[in-house]
Structures are given as C-alpha cells and as structure tokens.
Amino acid sequence: MSLNFNLLTLFPDMFPGMLGHSLAGRAHERGDWAFNAIDIRDFATDNHKTVDDTPYGGGAGMVMRADVIESALLSVEKPGRKIYLSPRGKVFNQTLAKELSQEENITLLCGRYEGIDHRVLEAHEFEEISIGDYVLSGGEPAALIMMDACIRLLPGVMGNVDTADNESFGANTGGLLEYPHYTRPAEWTASNGKTYDVPEVLRGGNHADIDKWREEKSLKVTKAVRPDLL
Ligand code: SAM
Q1: Residue to probe by mutation, ligand 1, list 136, 146, 148, most atoms within 8 Å of CB
Q2: CATH number attached to the domain at 173-229
Q3: CATH 3.40.1280.10, the chain: domain bounds
Q4: Best label site of 54, 90, 107, 207, fewest CB within 10 Å?
Q5: Does the beta carbon of 137 lie inside 6 Å of ligand 1?
Q6: CATH 3.40.1280.10 is right for the domain spanning 3-151
Q7: What does the pLDDT look like over 30-84, one tens digit per residue?
Q8: pLDDT grade, residue 1 (50/70/90)?
C-alpha cells in the first residue's frame, strides 16, 4: 500500500522540494508514497486567471475564492482525507502523523494571502491542521513538513522498525522527549578549549544501567523544556 498526497496549491513547483532527497526521496522512487500537485490557478474561469478577491466585511489582504478551489478539489479522483493547512487548526503532532501515515489518500489544501473562503471548507468538510503557533506566508511549507513526518513512518522507510517508537514523542519514550545522543570520539575537545566526555554509563555496556540513565535524561529534559508532555 502506498500513501498518495493530492496537493491543492498555487505553487505546484514547490513539490516534492526537500522530499525529493534522502529517506523520503528514496521512498518516493520505490513508490512508497506519491504526490499529485494540482495548480489551483488552472481552475480560474476568467481571462486573468483570478483566484482571489477582496474580503467581505473589509480588512487587509485577499481571500482565495471558494468556487475556484472547489473546481480544483473536484478534479481529484480520490481525495481521501481532506485537510486545510491553517494556523487556526488543531496542532499537528506525532500521534496525528502516525494516524495520517495509515491513510491511502490525503488532500492537502495550501492557502495563500489571508486564507480561504470559509464556505468551501465547510461544504467539503476539510479538517484544519496547523503546524504550530506562528503564521507562514503559505500552506506549502506546512504541507511539506506534515508529509515528511508521515512518510518516515511508512513501513520500510526507516531502516529499523523500532526507530520511531524510540524517538521523542514515541511509545517507548512514554511520549516524552528523547535522551541526548553521543558518538565517537569518547573524548572531544571543542574550539572553546574544553574537553567533553561521553557519559561513563554509555561506555560501560550495561544495558539496564543505560536504559535507566536514558529514562532519567528523558524525564529531565521534558520537565525542563516541555512540562506539558508529562
Ligand atoms: N490570515 C490567516 C490567519 O491569521 O490565520 C493567515 C494566512 S497565512 C498568511 C496564508 C496561508 O498560510 C494560510 O492560508 C495557511 O494555508 C498557511 N499557514 C500559515 N501559517 C500556518 C500554520 N501555522 N500552519 C499551517 N498552515 C499555515
């Protein structure tokens, strides 16, 4: 089974972007995931290819038209789960990434300007999802981030099937942040002249002690940085 993303956008050339590289790029070549970038402007009906208009009620900026977006959406054969990337949405997280990675088709609507005429979101029951409490200039970077988080969870994309569960927010980490990592050399002198050692416990090979140390570190960083996850 492969995961297909339909992307409704004014900038189809932004895809696959970074997802053409590394893990996601190889997974795309293998056919683990696919995308279909649809240019919303192709569905504008006037000579100027207008996709937006001024907002009812006044105010700054332009709003993307419901009729044009609906025509773009109706051109998609299998839209599957319909998502509008929006700062007003439910905040994206690892649980949602896991859930979405199990879908077959997802349609991501990328807004621009002030956003989208609300009626098309209502009529076609789009879910609204945000990638965080800040405002981007468009939904495309948000879509790429969501896609990346989903793609790496597809079977076979990461080498080790347990990897995701052992990472931050994973099942084996109890939903907490991950412990710190170290690799060779065991002693390293930084440009500030200080020598930093790898913690002794990680070099000892006692797995029970290592697990205990990692759990403690995980709890400590979560308490300090993201107490809301506890
Ligand atoms: N006027 C909107 C508001 O205040 O909520 C912001 C519009 S923003 C300039 C343009 C587009 O970027 C949005 O329609 C949305 O698709 C996308 N976008 C911006 N911030 C986002 C976020 N945090 N998560 C997901 N998409 C976002």
Answers
A1: 136
A2: 1.10.1270.20
A3: 3-151
A4: 207
A5: yes
A6: yes
A7: 999 999 999 999 999 999 999 999 999 999 999 999 999 999 999 999 999 999 9
A8: confident
